[in-house]
Design a protein that fits this description.
Helix content is 89%, strand content 0%. It is an all-alpha fold.
Length: 433
């Protein structure tokens, strides 16, 4: 059982790590060859990229969870219906997001606080990302489907192929051709296209017998996918909402220097958050399968194992962050002033890593067993509380209050997650139905 779980979870962790490294690769080359304005531009524009990825992840995870549950129940017809509806929803989401963001992205950049050179850099970058909307949505949406079809290794390899493509093209387009922010965005969407196309090819090969009529969205399946997918959507979007809120606070209380410093901090923090999310989401297929098979004791064992792995990783990452606090700004080519501020903020952010691990695993457990309401509170409560603290704390602590707000809320959400987990454990009737 443990071996099977690790074979599903570990590739998922690596896949999430590669997903986060996409942003780091762009930041590395942009920081080295464009500077603080480029770093700040990507950071401020990133919530729009995150929206594309969050919608894909939400739909993909929502459908994949129900595929695992129905697979555990031996309901192959239902599994195929969820798969067909998931594919259709990804297609329609792509059209809707492209139509929405193409005319609005310049206004959204202004709304997020971008001005001057930061605005120009962010505009050049996000324009290319929006043109590749389909690749963003399908690459993030199909990965969880394959994890729940016992093909976690393939999902990881598809992510790696896109990641390697992105690195090569960043070097060529930014360093050699000098295409700047446009080159960074183009390299990203081409890398995502490699992942998306590999997933689509594998889907055609493995699901060739899927009746074409099942690609017509089933109303009841759409409802269930959305209900379940709201949690992974929010889980993917939440860190980026936090980035947006902190950016606004940093702009107001510290100016462009604070935004540039937080750009490096967010690169480090988001990758670590994604890896910890990978522990939770990598555990989800096994937990959903056991839930479908009514193996409740095994389900709780996997959940406890995920807690242990997540906490061990979070402590390790906190130490790496603290001891590497002067090394990370150097990688991204930060100015001396930004480096000093970044080093300070990294030490503050690292405090919240263990809390992130607890919350991410708990949320994955909740949506694995259809306890969506608990998951909603944990997912959407975090950015709401951070928004409130970002209004209150800077009134007394100024820029320091902006930095302290994030780990403070993360610790509070971890306490709430443990309370909810205790309440859920008492609801044995829910898990036995």
């Amino acid at each position: 059982m443990i071996r099977s779980y690790l074979c599903t979870m570990l590739p998922a962790v690596l896949a999430f790590a590669f997903s986060g490294i996409y942003a780091i690769v762009d930041g590395f080359f942009v920081g080295q060859y464009i500077g603080d304005s480029g770093l700040a531009g990507i950071n401020i524009a990133y919530p729009m990229t995150a929206l594309l990825q969050a919608v894909g992840t939400g739909i993909g995870m929502g459908g994949a969870i129900h595929m695992s549950i129905t697979l555990g129940r031996g309901e192959e017809d239902q599994r195929q219906r969820f798969l067909g509806t998931t594919i259709s929803m990804l297609f329609f989401a792509t059209i809707l997001l492209f139509a929405l963001l193409l005319p609005l992205h310049p206004h959204l950049l202004r709304l997020f606080g971008a001005t001057g050179a930061v605005y120009d850099c962010g505009l050049d970058y996000i324009r290319m990302i929006i043109l590749g909307t389909a690749f963003q949505v399908f690459s993030t949406g199909l990965a969880p489907v394959f994890r729940n079809l016992n093909r976690s290794l393939f999902a990881m390899c598809a992510m790696m192929a896109g990641f390697i493509t992105n690195i090569i093209l960043d070097a060529v387009m930014i360093r050699i051709l000098g295409w700047g922010m446009t080159g960074a965005g183009l390299a990203t969407i081409i890398g995502q296209s490699v992942t998306a196309l590999l997933c689509l090819i594998m889907l055609v090969i493995t699901e060739w017998d899927l009746p074409r009529k099942l690609l017509i969205p089933q109303g009841w399946a759409v409802g269930r996918i959305i209900t379940t997918g709201l949690s992974p959507f929010g889980l993917t979007m939440s860190p980026n909402l936090v980035i947006m809120l902190v950016n606004l606070g940093a702009v107001h209380h510290g100016g462009e220097l604070a935004v540039a410093a937080y750009a490096v901090v967010s690169y480090v923090a988001v990758v670590i958050q994604l890896i910890l999310q990978g522990v939770g989401d990598g555990s989800q297929p096994t937990m959903s399968l056991y839930f479908g098979e009514k193996r409740i004791k095994d389900l709780h064992f996997i959940c406890k194992l995920a807690y242990g792995i997540g906490l061990a990783l979070s402590v390790g990452f906190a130490l790496i962050t603290v001891f590497g606090r002067t090394w990370f700004p150097y990688i991204f080519g930060s100015s001396p002033e930004a480096t000093l501020m970044t080093s300070h903020v990294l030490c503050i952010i690292a405090v919240g890593y263990p809390a992130i691990a607890l919350v991410r695993v708990t949320i994955s457990y909740f949506y694995s067993v259809n306890l969506d309401r608990f998951a909603y509170v944990l997912v959407y409560g975090e950015p709401v509380l951070i928004g409130l603290l970002l209004i209150g704390l800077p009134m007394f602590l100024h820029l320091e209050g902006v930095w302290i707000a994030v780990p403070t809320v993360q610790v509070l959400m971890a306490v709430l997650a443990l309370i909810f987990r205790r309440l859920a454990h008492k609801k044995k009737s829910i898990l036995s139905n």
